[in-house]
Amino acid sequence: MNNKIATREAYGKALVELGKVNEKVVVLDADLSKSTKTAAFQKEFPNRFFNMGIAEQNLMGTAAGFATSEKIPFVSTFAMFASGRAFEIIRNSIGYPKLNVKVCATHAGITVGEDGASHQALEDLACMRAIPNMVVLNPADAVSAKKAVFAMAEYNGPVYARFGRAAVPVIYDEDMNFEIGKGIEVKEGKDAAIIATGIMVAEAIKAREILSKKGIEVRVIDMHTIKPIDEEILIKAAKETGAIVTAEEHNIIGGLGSAVAEVLVENYPIPMKRVGTLDTFGESGKPAELMKKYALTAEDIAKVVEEVINKK
Amino acid sequence: MAKVDYEMLKKNATEIRKGIIKAVHAAGSGHPGGSLSAADILTVLYFYKMKVDPKNPKWEERDRFVLSKGHAAPVLYATLAEKGFFSKEELLKLRHIGAMLQGHPDMKGTPGVEMSTGSLGQGFSCSIGMALAAKLDKKDIRVYALLGDGEVQEGIVWEAAMAASHYKLDNLTAILDFNGLQIDGKNEDVMNIHPIKEKWESFGWHVLEIDGHSFEEIISVLDKADEIKDKPTMIIAKTIKGKGVSFMENQVGWHGTAPKDDEKEKALKELGGAN
């Protein structure tokens, strides 16, 4: 976990590799290609790259039009503008007609940092999850981000994928298997399970190490697909550990925590708690400072795990 | 250019108008005004201009039509039915539960519908992607998008307008169904869109103005648009909301109201016969 790479970096590189093997792939951006890392694709395949300017609604609509013509558009902008400003276009032009558009949103979550609340998408997973037909992905590291790009291209239908700005630990080997809809048991454990998504998987692994020193053995599951969520792995974890903690760099309302709660309450109710931002906007600051202030660190997760175990 | 059969166009337009009235009546809700205003335009597109195959709706080389003013779905449905994409009986099930014909166009459910629309401005934006894809594949495909005049108040329309000229989409023809009325009244009272011709020109479009009920003029500009290079064409078609049914013409109230039984009979009679 010493090597750190931003998932958006992996996304940009994966797009280039994908472009080489799949001629149907086109990439669209909204004047952020250097930040979203789609610029690499533009360099390699200038005729299949379309900068749509600072106009996110038309960005999504144009992508939908491409998809009606048998192209596979990968569309990028910041998560806030994709899931927020262009929400209705994604719903009506991509989700409703079930078009093969891949909305790859970068700069998600509080670790966008200094730009502050206006740029920190903490609702995107909830918004996208609420759209019928939409698959919602949130890869944990650079390796799984790359695999996610190829999995998205294979899948025929609308996908929202969330990528981060900040460099995060690489937790997987190159031979990891990324399957849409299948959570990954990253670490074994019997006392409780942390269901984490995105960059919080690395924090969850660190939380496990903290708890391990106290003799508590915690399972860590990477829930890279928020929708459709892997019910099987969740129910199994609930039955085998009896305590669940979710961890997401997102509002605790509507994202991973809600998705997991829905499954557990209907299938196997057990003590559960959610780690995430507590229905609040973020603020400017360094990513690490913000993680601490908004209680998203490994230490915070570990504390919550102990609270849940006490409720067993 | 092939000799134009004006008699056939006239007959088709009348059938399409009758289809609109019957469909909206059967639904008990819907948008007759803006459907009737666009009937002549759609007639020319589908019975003179566009390459389409009702037996093979997904034919790869087909031209594309996007009804961006999706609430005018009845005119699209009546036209597609007249063209043979599906049975005219479907028109009488418009907006009924389980029906193929939804209140606003649904590309997943209706043969010949190229894009699901209804949220204004959104279909026009999709037509940009369709035109770009045709260019990328070097295909001789023309994309047509029909917009309402109230619709151009949406910001996405201008985002798309900017992109279309930026990418020199000379395979895109947009038509503005300019009937001057929107739900709450006249465009100029609700939100003035003038000067509309200059707006489109300043966004880099080739703009042509016509009488949207003259087959000769519609045909002439659609043909002319094929010759314009390096820029998209906007046809501002002056139309009459509710055209063809005297008591609906130029009436804001008929934007989204279904005719009652007697109104339906009266409308069909005016259009030429009860069937």
From TrEMBL, chain A:
A Pfam family assignment: Transket_pyr
Domain Transketolase-like pyrimidine-binding residues, every copy: 5-170
Cofactor: thiamine diphosphate
SMART domains: Transket_pyr (SM00861)
PANTHER family, A to Z: PYRUVATE DEHYDROGENASE E1 COMPONENT (PTHR43825), TRANSKETOLASE-LIKE PYRIMIDINE-BINDING DOMAIN-CONTAINING PROTEIN (PTHR43825:SF1)
Name assigned to this protein: Transketolase family protein
Native source species: Crassaminicella indica
